[in-house]
Amino acid sequence: MLMDTSDMICDTYPGEMVGREYMENLYGEDMDRVLHSVVKLKNAVIGNNKQKFHMMSLGVVARLLEFIQNERAAVGLRTESAIVLGSLAKGSQANVKRLVDSGVVPILLQCLNNSNLKFVEGCLRCLRSIFTSQAAPVELLYTDPGVVPHMLDIVSQSPTTQECVCSILAQCCKTSEHQGLLYSNGVIESLAPLLASKMYKVQMPALRVFCVITYMNQIVSSAVAAASVAERPLPDLLVELCLRDKSVEMQMSSAKCLTYMCRANALSSQDSKIVYKALPTLIRMCKKDRTLEERVEGAETLAYLIEVDLELQRIASYSDHLIPTLSEFLRYPSTQTTVMDLKRLDYDMKHSHELKAAALMAFASLGANDEDIRKKIIETENLMDHVVCGLSDPVVRVRLAAVRCLHSLSRSVQQLRTSFQDHAVWKPLMKLLQNADDDMLTVASSTLCNLLLEFSPSKEPMLESGAVDLLCDLTKRDDPALRLNGIWALMNMAFQVETKNMAFQAEQKVKSQILAALGTDQLFKLLSDPDVNVLMKTLGLLRNLLSNKPHIDHIMGMHGQQIMQAIVLILEGEHTIEVKEQTLCILANISDGTTAKDFIMANDDVLKKITNYMIHANVRLQIAATFCISNLVWNEEEGALERQMKLRDMGVQKLLQQLLSSSDTVLFDKVKTALQQFT
Amino acid sequence: MSFTEKHEEISKQEWMDRLNSLHISRADMNRLIMNYLVTGEFSSGSSEGFKEAAEKFRVEAGIPMNMDTESLDERIKIRDAIQKGEIEEAMALVNNLHPELLDDNRYLYFHLQQQHLIELIRKKDVEGALQYAQTHLAERGEENADVLNELEKTLALLAFENPEDSPFGELLHPSQRQKVASELNSAILEVENRESTPKLANMLKLLLWAQHELDQKKVKYPHMTDLAKGEIEDPK
C-alpha cells in the first residue's frame, strides 16, 4: 500500500545526523565501503517515505546517478544504486516528481543497453515505478528513438523484464502515433506469448498493452486478430482471459480488448467471442457486487461496444437485468447499497457522478435504434426524471451523457408525443444549449430537432426562451453539422399539423418569428449552402413556411420577389433531383395561395421552366410540376379563366393531354385533375 | 437428467472398489510431498531440518531439481534471523532478495519493525525502543489507523515492570516471532509467484468440500472423517 504521506520536514529530524553520514560515505575512495554505504542507504529508505524525502534533500540522487552512468564503476555498485533509485520512486507522488526533475529517466533508459541483467532489471524497476505514477513523463520514453525497439528486444529475458516493459508500455501508449510506433517495432509478436505466461504479474500488464494498442486502431486490431500464440489464435486466448476464474481486472481488460477490436472492425459484432463472451462479461461488470470503478468502466465499455450495432443493443437489453442494474447507478447510493467501510463510502460519494454518466451513456447506446428498447428504458421507474436531472447536473460529463441519452430516446415518435411532454425536457435542454461547447451543441441541437418534430403546446414557451434565435445562430456556424441541426430544427418548428385548427394563430406567430429572426438574407444564403443536406432542409423550411393559404399570401406579400429569385437560381443550378423536386413543391405551394399565384403567372421564365419539367425524364419532377399547374388552373379560384387562357396559349393543355399516356398512376391522377379544371 | 431424485445407497465395499479403480501415479504423489516440504508453513523443528529432509527426499524419489527450491536457502536464512530476534538482519536479507517487497507491503514492513521494537523491549533497552519508535514507526501510524492501534499496544509494554505478565504479554511470546516469519515467508512466495500453501493442503480442502456438497444433497456415502488417518467409514 503506497500512501501519500505529507513530506513534512521536521527541523529536529532524528535521522538527520545519520543521513549526513551516509552522504559522506558515498564520496569515499574505498569502493567497497562506498558499496556498503549504498546498501545501508537502501535499507534505510525502503519502506520509509520520510527517509526517502530526507535523503533526496541531501542530494543523494545526483551521486547515485554518477555511479549509474559510470561505465567503469563496478556493476554491483551501479545495480545497488539503481535499486535505491527504485525505492525512492516508491515514495510519495511529490517524491517521484522530484526524481523526474532530477533527470533520472533519460539516464536509466540509456542504461538499458547494458549487458548485465541484474543491472538492467534494477533500472527497469525504477522506470516502471516512475512511469506508472501520476507524474509519468510519457514523452521521455520516445525522445530517443532507439529506446522502444530496444525494450521490445530485451522484454523476454526474465519475468522482471517482461513485467516492467509491459507495464511501462501500457502506461505510455497514449496516441495513435505511439500505437503505430509500437506496431512497427513488432509489439504484437514480442508480447503475444506473454499473454500465456503463468505469472499473473506478467500476464496482466501484457494484456493492458494489447488494450491500449488496439483502441480505435484498425490496422493494429486486425493484426492482433490475425496473430497467434503457439498456434492458438490470439482472440481465442483473449476469450480465455475473460473467464470467471480470472481476476476481475483481467476479465475487464480482455473484454475491453475484444471490444476495441470489434469497434475497429477487426472482429465481427456477431462473432461468438463478442456476443457470448465480451458482452456478457461487461454486463457482469455492472453488477452491484462490483466496486464503483469497475461498474463505471464496465458500463462505459459496454456503451462503446453496442453503440452502433442494433443486434448487440437488442441482446444487451434483455440480458441479465441490465436495464434495472444500470438504473441503480442513477440512484446511487441508495438504500440497497451495502456499506463496506467509511473510506470506501466517502470515495464513492465523491465519484457517484461518474456512475450516473456511465449509466446514461449506456442507455444512450441501448436506445439508439430500437423502439421497443426505448420504451423499456423510458418505462423504467423514475428514469426520465434522472435523465432530466442529468441535463442540469453540475458536472459537464453528466450533462453530456444525459443529452446523448435524451437524443437516443427522442428518436421515438411515440415518446415525443407522450413522456417528453410530461417531463418538460425542453427547459433544461434549452438552458444547456445556451452555454454549450461544440460537442454538446451538436448532440443537444439534434435532440432539440427531434423534439420539435411534433406539434405541441410547449413550442410556445420554447419560442419565449429564445429557441429561434439560438437555432438561427447555429445556421451561421462553420461546422455543417451544426448548420444542419439549426435549419432542421427550424424546419420542424415551422411544420404545421393541419388538423389543429386552433393552432392557426400560434403557428403564424411561429413562422413569422422564424422568418424575422433568420432574415431573408440568411435564408437565401442557406439556399446556396455548399452542403446539400443544409440546402434540402432550408428548402424544407421554406416549404413549411408556405404551407397554408393565408400564410402563403402573407409571406409572399412580404418577400415574394426574393423567394422567386432564389427558386429560379436553384432550378437553373446544378442540383440533385431531390433538391429540384423540393423546389418545385415550393412552387406548387406558392401556386396554392390566392394573391401569391400572381408571382408565378407574372414570371414567364418560371412558367417556361415548369412546362419543361412536365416532360422531364424523372417522373417525380413531372408530378411536382403538374401539381403546380393544377393549382394555377384551379377553377374555383378567382381569376382562373385568365390563368387558364394564358397557360393554354403556352401549350400547357396540350402537354397535359400528352401526359395522359403516362404509366405512373400518381402522375396520371394529377394530370387528369388538372385537365378537368380547364373549361 | 432424471426428473425424480434418486438417492442411491452405496456400500462401503462398492465405494472402496470405485476408489481403488482410480490410479494416482507415484510421481504425482512424490511431487505433492516435495511441494509440501519446500513450501509455506514450516511448523515445527528447525528449517534446516526440513531442507535436509527435502533434499534427501528429492534424491530418493528421483525428482528433478526445479524452481521450487530456488529461494529456499534465503528464505531459511530469513526465517532463522527472525527466530533469533535479529530483525534488522532479516530485513536486510529481504531487501537483497526482493528489493521492492517491503516498499510494496507497508503493513508487513510495519510488523517487522514492530517485532524489532519488541526485541528491544525484551532486552530492556527502553531508550533504544523509544528512539526507534519515534524515528521509524511514527510515520507508519500516519498511514494506517490499524497500525496505530497495534503500535500503542506494543509501546504500552514499556509501562510494565514485567511486560510478559501485562495484558499485551503475548507480543513477547515466541509465537509472535513465528507469526511475523510466516507473514514474511508468504509475501516472498507470493512475489515469486508461488503458492504459500502446499498443494496437499488444497487437496484436503477439496476433499472436505466435496463431502460437504454431497451432504447438502443428502447423499449417503462412506465418509472420510479422520483426515490424518485417511480411513473411510461405513455409510451411516
UniProtKB/TrEMBL annotation, chain A:
GO terms for biological process: proteasome-mediated ubiquitin-dependent protein catabolic process. Keywords: Cytoplasm, Nucleus, Repeat. GO terms for cellular component: cytoplasm; GID complex; nucleus. It is found in: Cytoplasm; Nucleus. Its main location: cytoplasm. SMART domains: ARM (SM00185). It comes from the Eukaryota. SUPFAM superfamilies: ARM repeat. This is Armadillo repeat-containing protein 8. It comes from Branchiostoma belcheri (Amphioxus).
Automatic annotation (TrEMBL), chain B:
Residues 71-128 form the CTLH domain. It holds the Pfam family CTLH. InterPro entries: CRA_dom, CTLH/CRA, CTLH_C, LisH, Ubq-SigPath_Reg. This is Glucose-induced degradation protein 8 homolog isoform X1. It comes from Branchiostoma belcheri (Amphioxus).
